[in-house]
């Protein structure tokens, strides 16, 4: 009877170990993949997390086609720049326990000195302002929802006459820096950090402004790792919140 009990105890212990794996035991780091927009804040949080907890987190970011294949094998967590993006990521990864963390607002970026005197969306619609938008990634449908908030179909038609469209924010950044015909750029607030030398930021009117979140979810691999759960919990900590707010993200606006 004692031998049987000992064997049973061994089975139970080994079963529990197989459910929850340690990254440190694997001599590895957490692998977290997602788009470029939220990455600067996440990188800083990851450094803080490593300093406090001794657990290294690699943030791999950019357009999804750049890291998708690698992430299918290595990812512990996947983050997104909007709910529409996070849900679409389910097509490529088996994700679970999704959690929205922080929001950021849509803004208007204009040329340095604001030569076209753009003070909001109404000026863009009514003054033939050449405007850059992103039609994919975390901004799918964003400009359309903003412009259509007036409830007037004429505004959509006016805006469409002067639109410059890209598939993601990285492409939009390149277009902004090279195409001087563009007068304005509808984008998330934190992208202004990338173009401060050649642009100004204009706050969008309250009745037009939209918000979308950064969300994070576990892969099947990450769900079995203690450290990935610790990192997700840390993302809602006070230290993480302070870092995110510094980068333009808040839990509540």
Short description:
The chain is built from 10 helices and 9 strands.
Write down how many β-strands occur, each being a DSSP E stretch of 2 or more residues.
9
* SSE ordering: HEHEHEHEHEHHEHEEEHH
Head-to-tail CA distance between termini: 63 Å
Low-confidence runs of at least 5 consecutive residues: 1-21
Q: Which bin fits the share of residues in helices?
A: 25-40%
Strand content: 15-25%
Structural class: alpha/beta
Largest sheet: 9 strands, mixed
Radius of gyration: 22 Å
Shape, per Cα inertia axes: elongated
Describe the model:
The structure is a single chain. With 253 residues, the protein is of the alpha/beta class. Helix 2 links the parallel strand 1 and strand 2. The N terminus is likely disordered.
Question: How would you summarize the topology of this molecule?
Answer:
Layout (H helix, E strand, L loop, with lengths): L1 H18 L10 E5 L4 H15 L3 E5 L2 H11 L2 E4 L2 H7 L5 E17 L9 H6 L4 E4 L7 H6 L5 H8 L2 E4 L2 H10 L5 E5 L10 E5 L7 E9 L6 H9 L3 H9 L7
Helix pairs in contact: 2-10
């Amino acid at each position: 009877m004692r031998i049987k009990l000992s064997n049973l105890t061994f089975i139970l212990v080994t079963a529990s170990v197989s459910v929850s794996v340690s990254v440190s035991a694997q001599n590895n780091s957490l692998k977290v993949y997602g788009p470029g927009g939220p990455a600067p804040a996440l990188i800083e949080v990851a450094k803080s997390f490593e300093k406090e907890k001794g657990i290294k987190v690699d943030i791999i970011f950019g357009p999804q086609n750049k890291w998708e294949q690698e992430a299918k094998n290595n990812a512990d967590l996947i983050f997104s720049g909007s709910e529409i993006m996070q849900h679409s990521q389910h097509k490529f990864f088996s994700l679970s326990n999704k959690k929205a963390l922080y929001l950021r607002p849509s803004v208007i970026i204009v040329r340095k000195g604001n030569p076209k005197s753009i003070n909001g969306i109404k000026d863009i619609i009514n003054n033939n302002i050449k405007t850059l938008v992103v039609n994919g990634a975390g901004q799918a449908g964003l400009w359309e929802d903003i412009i259509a908030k007036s409830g007037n179909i004429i505004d959509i038609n006016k805006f469409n006459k002067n639109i410059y469209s890209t598939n993601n924010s990285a492409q939009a950044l390149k277009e902004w820096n090279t195409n001087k015909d563009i007068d304005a750029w509808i984008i998330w607030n934190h992208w202004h950090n990338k173009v401060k030398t050649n642009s100004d930021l204009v706050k969008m009117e309250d009745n037009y402004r939209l918000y979308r979140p950064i969300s994070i979810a576990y892969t099947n691999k990450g769900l079995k790792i203690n450290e990935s759960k610790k990192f997700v919990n840390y993302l809602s900590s006070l230290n993480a919140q302070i870092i995110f707010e510094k980068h333009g993200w808040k839990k509540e606006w």
